[in-house]
Amino acid sequence: MHILPLSNASRSALAFAALAVSGCAKHETRPPTPSPQAAAAPVTPPRPAPAPRPSVPAAPAPIAPVQWADLQEISYELRARFFVGIAGLESKVAAQVRELVAQRAAMTGLNDTREWDFAMKEMESARSYLTSVGAAAGKAGRDIWDQEKAKVGRAWVSTQDAYGKVKSSTTTR
User: Fold this and answer.
1) Given 3-state DSSP classes, what are the helix, strand and coil percentages for the chain, each rounded to the nearest 5?
2) Tens of pLDDT along 97-139?
3) How far is CA 156 from the centre of its chain?
4) By the 8 A CB rule, do 166 and 93 touch?
C-alpha cells in the first residue's frame, strides 16, 4: 500500500470532514430530547428522607442498694439472686473508686499524697479480690457453697475497710 502525500488544502478539508462527521458532541448545548415514554410518565417529586429519630437510651432498671447482710444468708438454691447482689456490690465499689480518683485529681501539689496512693493500691487490690472470689463462688458446688460465700463476705469487708482508709487519707489534709 502506497500513501500519497496530501496538500495543506486536502488536509484541512479532511479535518473539517472528520469534525463534521463526529458532530462535535463536546460543544453541543441543546438539552436532550426526552423519549416519548419518558414524556408520558408522570413526574413524582422525590420523597424527603425521614427525619432521624433521637436515640433515647433505655433507663436502667432501678437497683435497690445492695448490702452484704442481704446476701450472706442466701442458699445454694437461690444463688442466682446472690450473683445479682454481688454485681451490685461490685458496682458500688466501682463508684467508690471513681469518687476517690476524682478526689485525688483535685489534690494540689502541696498535699503529701503518698499515704493516699498507698491506701488506693490497697483499695484496688481489695476490689480485684472481691471480683475474683465472686467469680469463684459462681463455680462452687453445693458442698463448698457456704465457704465460698464467706470468702466473698470477707472480700467485701476488705474493700470497705480500704475505702475508709483512702477516704481518711484525703480528708485529713
Assistant:
1) 65, 0, 35
2) 999 988 888 877 666 778 888 889 999 999 999 999 999 998 9
3) 29
4) no
At 28 the pLDDT is 52
Task: Show Cβ contacts of residue 14 under 8 Å, excluding neighbours closer than 6 positions.
Answer: 6
| Alpha-carbon distances of 5 from 8, 13, 14, 16, rounded to whole Å | 10, 14, 13, 18
Alpha-carbon gap, residue 152 to 88, rounded angstroms: 13
AA identity, residue 163? Y
Give the C-alpha distances (Å, rounded to integers) separating 87 from 80, 112, 151: 11, 34, 15
Coil, strand, or helix at residue 5?
A: coil
Given a contact cutoff of 8 angstroms between Cβ atoms, the answer to whether 156 and 89 are in contact is: yes
The rounded distance, in Å, linking the Cα atoms of 76 and 73 is: 10
- CA–CA distances in Å: residue 7 to residues 25, 99, 114: 28, 95, 100
Q: What is the mean pLDDT of residues 8-17?
A: 53
Give CA–CA dist 103/72, Å, rounded. 32
